[in-house]
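Chain and conformation:
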Amino acid sequence: MERPNAWLTYSDADMQDLETVAKKYRHFLNVGKTERECITQIVKEAEEAGYVSLEEKVKNGEDLKAGDKVYQVGMQKIIALYHIGEDDLAEGMNILCAHIDSPRLDIKQNPLYEDTDLAYLDTHYYGGVKKYQWVALPMAMHGVIAKKDGTVVNVTIGEDEDDPVVYITDLLIHLAGQQMAKKASEAVEGEKLDILIGSQPLKDLPDDKKKEAVKENVLRILNEKYGVEEEDFLSAELEIVPAGKARDCGLDRSMIAGYGQDDRVCAYTSLLALLEMEAPKRTSCCLLVDKEEIGSVGATGMQSHFFENSVAEVLDAMGQYSDLRLRKALKHSSMLSSDVSAGYDPAFAEAFEKKNSAYLGRGIVLNKFTGARGKSGSNDANAEYVARVRRIFDDHKVCFQTAELGKVDVGGGGTIAFIAALYGMEVIDSGVSVLSMHAPWEVTSKADVYEAKKAYKAFLLDA
């Protein structure tokens, strides 16, 4: 069933609200290009809205009670925020969960080398990427370098107007006959995604250093600016991402083009929805996780025990902890797995089934199931839960649509929904449709961003 275009429903006041949300979201994309940067901005906005650290509250011997707003951060890459409600926590929470990691290139632990008077950094790509899309673009370097003395240096190169950018070369078209004959997946190899970072040699070096004079010059620059040495790369987390700010897209400014919208578009609208909550009856939670793009693994991914442990600490701070109450709190919760969906692209219509596709401008997308090869890896939400979410959205005049991720047997993908469902809670995927998903620059509709924020707030209020 075709759903109406959200743009046609907006009043002048709605349009003002929409532009406010879009402006805040663009800013978030610009200041949060890594997980650590996202967490820093999230904590800043949460504290401005009255949230306090759960650890600090416990350390000060303060009990949690209805109305309190707290957050807990893990390894600067995962965060859970809670607005404590009046109802017994063992009766469950309303949870919005999204991921804040995005496809990128990671610098290897032994990355720096020189070849023919050019200096490079070796990389390992992170998440599912079309490798040929990441060449011949201005790129920026973000991340941290941890030194043995315990200090951590923040690195950002390539975002300010006066900054240099880094770059991945591609073969000129005049000599690319063999390259062009390869499959797209083979045209650019992973080991060829090395970052060009210098070409000027350092003068007056001893003979044993002259063969790597360009590399030595790069090391001199890094040492002068950040106080680091080559060995410090061993304990660095440096990410290579597209340089430049998110921008309005289209002559009508109806869309946003920017890096990392999968899944920061859902993460930020989930955060906005939570921060707007006032005195919830049922505890509201926003969980923003790492590592989804590589299987939700590690201590900061959804498969970790971070969330379970965090809820246990909340219960304990309320004087209500027991293992059974923890299990009940998780089981009785309702969640929106806030993750993006593939926007229908008429340029590639052969990959989509039109009746069951997500369209830009028609509101937030409900994916009853994701997965591939017969729904493999999918949560597949219960029909009764889908009906309940539909009712909530309709009651709050949220524009929404339903979709699958492309044609059957064409491909597929997964989210964190099935992991949360292991607790027995009701979960459904619900997010924004994206064009060029996983490309260096992705496109979303401002209307869908706005409807996502409305949908998430409605869910927190009434689920």
